[in-house]
């Protein structure tokens, strides 16, 4: 299949062009969903769709689809390729954008070659994958898959007080199509790994076979604010110390197990947060992830049991609020094997892997066979201006996507 | 000595009157040093000094002295009694004020009785003991004792951008006297305990024999911000987890030792403080206290050794900034014994104890034999509107102070 390759220069140029849109005076890149800067990015993407001769469709949640309908595909379900072009605050240029622009590049290459696809091929940029401005994240794909009511999503209040539906109308991306109007036959998402595994192992292609389940909780511990100098250790109800015990418990448990479970405490605050006052209250987040639902439930149960034990031992009050919960997703084995085959035929090392992050693919997997392709992230860094993948890896990943699409485009595939 | 007692009603009434000054619309009490509300409190105190017929002196750092010079005392050094009348934010009414108003009450009682003191007796309200608006705390007494340069203290920039010297002038309390102009023969400070010990043991009087040394440090741990989902536990440099290990280390060490050492982590923050990002940075305060200087040094060294070990084990960078360091203070044994004797003769249970908090007495101890008397704090609560001491205990403490002053006022005492 190595007779055909994507236009590397065009792909890299588009990634850089899109990555230049939404920079502030100090050069920080931020294109929050449905913002003014994201509108400029959307307009740029649509102009590329036009340039490639694709049919442009926008649905009511603002997902942008670029549709290639080769002759004779009739009303067959499309192959869908894509990701998102919104970003976090102070972002890198690859997260999401790479997958969208590589998908466009693949379609444009196939179209230019007169490739005989048995199905339409669609590139999609889903709205609000990052969830920074409007919660939850992966919103556009979730609505597309029917997992979130459209009107509820449009009514979402942003962190800046805006309403998503109003903002989409304002920037001209409240489309006419019902989300999900074009049900995919299969969905493939190419993405940077956002983790260190591929780079550390020197492997350019990851065939993503599943995606971790995610459990987000907010834990609040209530103790007594007392004077740091006058309260003997034995008389303390120290919420901060109790919080520290939870953090070390989670780490010790994750480290001691032979599983891929990860546990992270990323946010914390103490009250009153004074140097000479024992914390009366500690609030912190717990992010638990595991590709196996039973094991994720086990981890949640182990945390709950530890909190009960801690409340009694430290004489503190503990309450837990669930912030988010996604079950693990298993991707389509056949597509994963196609990714491995394509990499092999290109002479690229490949490994099966688990996605630690959430992606639009996990939502679309509800309605179509799906999988993902990862390329290495240098240093595992993402959501950060230092996010980087080498040009060579970017091009190699896009060519693997090209080959997988060519296989899937055959009449009887899947 | 029980022939004479203070005027309980007058003392309690004054405590309540002063405690009503500086309340905001919602009833919160705040009289920060040299603020408009503190000026009203100072004016009230001075009017009571006038009413008691005392000579009023204000020094250049704003300390207010009410001086009683009985006939025949000549130029003998005074007995000095006092504390402070500035407060923290959302304060209780007893911290500091009780000691100042009880001292005034004692002097007024002795004066009215024509008590033959061999020395002047002075009540003092030191400026900025709390240190909330201007650092360091205990500033007025520190300057009075010659431990901080007057001009440097007056140039102190407040948390609100004000300059202490300007504010003292503005509120009319930039006095003419050089701080320390009246060197005390002895100093006694009556204060609420601000801890739970006396109440829990049912003892109304504490004879404070020493004051803990205080070591304040800010610890900063630097790791790597990486994605919480994609970074295997073994590849993490998690600054938040390392911080939690320090907190549990300090607690385990304090709990495991048979010493009065206390260790508190009161402030913490993580960066970037995002639920799905491993903390790249954790900053937290460590408050270590011990009445024994050697032991305090040992605790500091143990923490430093643990941080070294942690930096290597967790592959994180750790830096430590010293915020404050006060050596323990041992009070004058003779005065402590006079407190015990006075309590005994009043039929009050008394125990020797260590002050866990800092007080003006620790500064004046540099220039004169000093000691403190504690009364119980209900629930050990202080720096809080719930701060409370029963009227009975307040009156008992003031009478013990009265008796101690009568002993010290004898010609050959100390």
Termini separation of chain A comes to 19 Å
Secondary-structure element pattern of chain A, one letter each: HHEEEHEHHHEHEEHEEEHEEHEHEH
What oligomeric state do these chains adopt? homodimer
Task: Give the count of structural domains of chain A.
Answer: 2
CATH class of the largest domain in chain A: Alpha Beta
CATH architecture annotation name of the largest domain in chain A: 3-Layer(aba) Sandwich
Overall SS class of chain A? alpha/beta
The most extensive interface, with participating residues per chain, is: A-B, 61 and 61 residues
Overall geometry of chain A comes to globular
Cα Rg of chain A: 23 Å
Question: Runs of chain A with pLDDT <50, length 5+?
Answer: none
**SS field, number of helical segments of chain A:** 12
CATH homologous superfamily label of the largest domain in chain A: Zn peptidases
Main β-sheet of chain A: number of strands, strand sense, barrel status? 9 strands, mixed
Mean pLDDT of chain A: 96
Task: Tell me the β content of chain A.
Answer: 15-25%
CATH-defined fold name of the largest domain in chain A: Aminopeptidase
Could you estimate the helical fraction of the residues of chain A in percent?
Answer: 25-40%
Q: Give the strand tally of chain A.
A: 14
Domain Peptidase M20 dimerisation (chains A, B): 212-313
Family (chains A, B): Belongs to the peptidase M20 family.
Binding site for Zn(2+) 1 (chains A, B): 84, 95, 191
Binding site for Zn(2+) 2 (chains A, B): 95, 130, 383
């Amino acid at each position: 299949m190595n007779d055909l390759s994507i236009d590397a220069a065009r792909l890299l140029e588009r990634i850089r062009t899109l990555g230049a849109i939404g920079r502030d005076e100090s050069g920080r890149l931020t294109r929050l969903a449905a913002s003014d800067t994201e509108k400029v990015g959307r307009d740029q993407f649509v102009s590329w769709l036009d340039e490639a001769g694709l049919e442009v469709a926008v649905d009511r949640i603002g997902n942008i689809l670029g549709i290639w309908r080769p002759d004779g595909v009739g009303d067959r379900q499309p192959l869908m390729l894509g990701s998102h072009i919104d970003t976090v605050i102070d972002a890198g240029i690859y997260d999401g954008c790479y997958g969208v622009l590589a998908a466009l590049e693949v379609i444009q290459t196939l179209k230019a070659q007169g490739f005989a696809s048995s199905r339409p091929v669609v590139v999609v940029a889903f709205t609000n994958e990052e969830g920074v401005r409007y919660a939850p994240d992966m919103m556009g794909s979730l609505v597309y898959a029917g997992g979130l009511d459209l009107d509820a999503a449009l009514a979402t209040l942003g962190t800046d007080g805006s309403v998503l539906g109003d903002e989409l109308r304002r920037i001209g991306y409240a489309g006419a199509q019902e989300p999900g109007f074009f049900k995919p036959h299969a969905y493939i998402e190419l993405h940077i790994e956002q983790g260190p595994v591929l780079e550390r192992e020197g492997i350019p292609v990851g065939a993503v076979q599943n995606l971790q389940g995610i459990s987000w909780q907010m834990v609040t511990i209530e103790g007594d604010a007392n004077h740091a100098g006058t309260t003997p250790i034995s008389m303390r109800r120290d919420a901060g110390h109790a919080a520290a015990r939870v953090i070390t418990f989670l780490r010790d448990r994750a480290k001691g197990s032979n599983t891929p479970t990860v546990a992270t405490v990323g946010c914390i605050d103490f009250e009153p947060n004074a140097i000479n006052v024992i914390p009366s209250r500690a609030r912190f987040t717990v992010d638990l992830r595991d590709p196996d639902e039973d094991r994720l439930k086990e981890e949640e149960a182990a945390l709950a049991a530890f909190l009960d034990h801690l409340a009694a031992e430290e004489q503190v009050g503990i309450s837990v609020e669930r912030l988010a919960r996604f079950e693990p997703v298993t991707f389509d084995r056949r597509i994963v094997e196609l990714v491995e085959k394509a990499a092999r035929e290109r002479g690229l090392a490949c490994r099966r892997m688990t996605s630690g992050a959430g992606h639009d693919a996990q939502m679309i997997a509800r309605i179509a066979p799906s999988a993902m392709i990862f390329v290495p992230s240098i240093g595992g860094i993402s959501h950060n201006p230092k996010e980087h993948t080498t040009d060579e890896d970017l091009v190699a990943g896009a060519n693997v996507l090209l080959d997988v699409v060519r296989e899937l485009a055959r009449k009887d595939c899947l």
